[in-house]
Amino acid sequence: MASTLMTVAILADGSSVKGQIIAAGMDGYIIHDTTSSTVMKIPKLTGTYNPLDGSLKPDHDNNMYTNDLSREKEAYQRLQGILVVANCLDTNTHGLVFEFYKNGDLEDYIRDNPPAPWSQKVNWIFQILDAFIACHKRRILVFDIALRNLMLDDDMNIKLIDFANCSLLPLDENTELVDEDGYTAEIDLLHVINVIYSISRWDKFQTDCLKMDQWPAADSLPSTLGLP
């Protein structure tokens, strides 16, 4: 007889997830509470569910993920009140609670829709720049900068999400923005420029660069001819 055991997402206390999983990343799940206009990001914890007896057993490797959200919690605390950053409504033992942005992310929007008017593109570009100015002022190197992490609210304004891999530099220092792995503010800005290019061209573009010695050569980057 085939096995009836199933792998399911679970909460930090070992209980089952209530709600719909609408996204899954390297470090967590996004759960949509269909009874409200919120989503919750939880660590990527799984368990084995046996429908025959209703038992739920957490997986052994869950300890790899249990503390992954602590860095994000501090990042959102530093950025509280910044309009271009996703509104973190609550932090609790299970995860982070956010407003639900039903318009989705900019990557899907660009893929599924005709090009937006240039005036709309300019609004998004300035909002993105505002977001990263705010992050750098609060000594946060964002790292994971991509169209998929730029949500669109009900008014089609940008909301920056995902600080799972960010670097939080000491607030009481006034030194250059560079972390212990050699990641710098300049690399953050390179990836911001990739996003701006993608919006302008209306086509996703990304380049890999994690350290200054990986900086792409100019002739490896796409042309800007024909862009406003």
Automatic annotation (TrEMBL):
Residues 16-228 form the Protein kinase domain. PROSITE patterns: PROTEIN_KINASE_DOM. It comes from the Eukaryota. It comes from Aureobasidium pullulans. PANTHER family: SERINE/THREONINE-PROTEIN KINASE PLK. This is Protein kinase domain-containing protein. InterPro entries: Kinase-like_dom_sf (IPR011009), Prot_kinase_dom (IPR000719). Gene3D superfamilies: Transferase(Phosphotransferase) domain 1.
